[in-house]
Specification:
Structural class: mainly alpha
Radius of gyration: 17 Å
CATH topology: Ferritin
CATH architecture: Up-down Bundle
Number of domains: 1
Bound molecules: MU-OXO-diiron
Number of helices: 5
CATH class: Mainly Alpha
Number of strands: 0
Distance between the termini: 32 Å
Strand content: under 5%
CATH superfamily: Ferritin, core subunit, four-helix bundle
Largest sheet: none
Amino acid sequence: MNRTITALLNTQLQKEFEAAYNYIGFAAFFDKKGLSGFSKWYRVQAEEEKEHAMKIYDYLCRINQPIELLPIPAPKYKLENIEQVLKLGLEHEEYITGLITTIYIQAEKEQDFFTKNFLEWFIREQFEEEESAKILIEKYSNFGITPQGLYILDREMGTRSAR
Ligand code: FEO
């Protein structure tokens, strides 16, 4: 297999763990505000990101390529208010979609159809993740700005469970 794809996949493995770390940061922000439902939502999201990382890990193992564990940086975001955090979540997912797209384009260039096929799951997943981030922003702006609305939304978000 071409080394470029291996390097990109190893970087993506790191990026998925980095996403998990970011979402744990979001959970901590909401825990501090007493919004345990929002916190739960992001904790579940963090677990999913770790699963994404391990999917890449497994793929690299299956195609007999080296795993390179790169350092995971501390979250760089300064979390200020709920709306900003929700928007950062969407921005982060768009960033991840961009990374996945770059690997896909590289796989296409190299006619690496196994990797293209592997990445199709991630492309579908990114579509869903961007969609749920957008829905969250909408729900918050429609219902979350009153204390009662925020209470109900927090309860709803707390019902999210791992897939
Ligand atoms: Fe694994 Fe949210 O991207």
